[in-house]
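Case 194 in the screening queue. Each case pairs one protein sequence with one candidate compound; here the compound is magnesium ion. For every case the pipeline is the same: read the inputs, emit a complex structure as tokens, and attach any notable structural observations.

Predict complex for case 194.
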Amino acid sequence: MTFINYAAREINCKIVYYGPGLGGKTTNIQHIYDKSNAGAKGKLISLATETDRTLFFDFLPLELGAIRGFKTRFHLYTVPGQVFYDASRKLILKGVDGVVFVADSQEARMDANAESIHNLKENLSQNGYDLNRVPYVLQVNKRDLPSAMPLEVLVPPLRVKDEPVFEAVAVKGRGVFDTLKAIIRLVMLDLKNR
Ligand SMILES: Nc1nc2c(ncn2[C@@H]2O[C@H](COP(=O)(O)OP(=O)(O)OP(=O)(O)O)[C@@H](O)[C@H]2O)c(=O)[nH]1
Ligand SMILES: [Mg+2]
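Case 194 output:
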């Protein structure tokens, strides 16, 4: 839930990057961190295993200036994609304002993509949210791989509603900021409509 502090004139929003293991969630956040101005970003906190798999989460606070006199901060989180870290994923979704689903474009990962979307729905609903009502963007990542599936085959089974879809090559930064801007836009719209 968006935290609006009227006294301090601050808005804090939480955006969670969700998706299957090795899909590229941490790579997205890392790119955003690398390319953001020193003044806009806080510390990137990554809790990872020795093999660079996310163990608990990554966390990056971004400050995007003032909107109608309110200082606006976005707190970006990633979840650990590995199936057995489900308790962490559920916890990280608490208070979420928007979700970016990072799908892996490879055919061999289609089951993992589908399983992760199912898991997202489940964990949102256990936290009292409905994915149909949560600001949501789909990113299809790893478009550079020869094994990446064509969009018209990849996207339809992953759709959950009329969410914006972005192609990405997160390792090269392609599509990363387009995805971020789209989720921020949806979160701000949602805030306005409350
Ligand atoms: N070829 C290619 N590799 C990518 C791309 N994005 C990420 N990777 C690589 O995929 C691997 C996994 O990326 P991560 O960002 O750690 O994936 P993750 O979704 O955070 O994985 P978990 O933390 O286990 O859930 C890394 O070796 C990345 O460099 C991409 O667009 N193309
Ligand atoms: Mg990760």
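Case 194 observations:
- Residues 110-126 form the longest helix (17 residues).
- The chain has one domain: 3-192.
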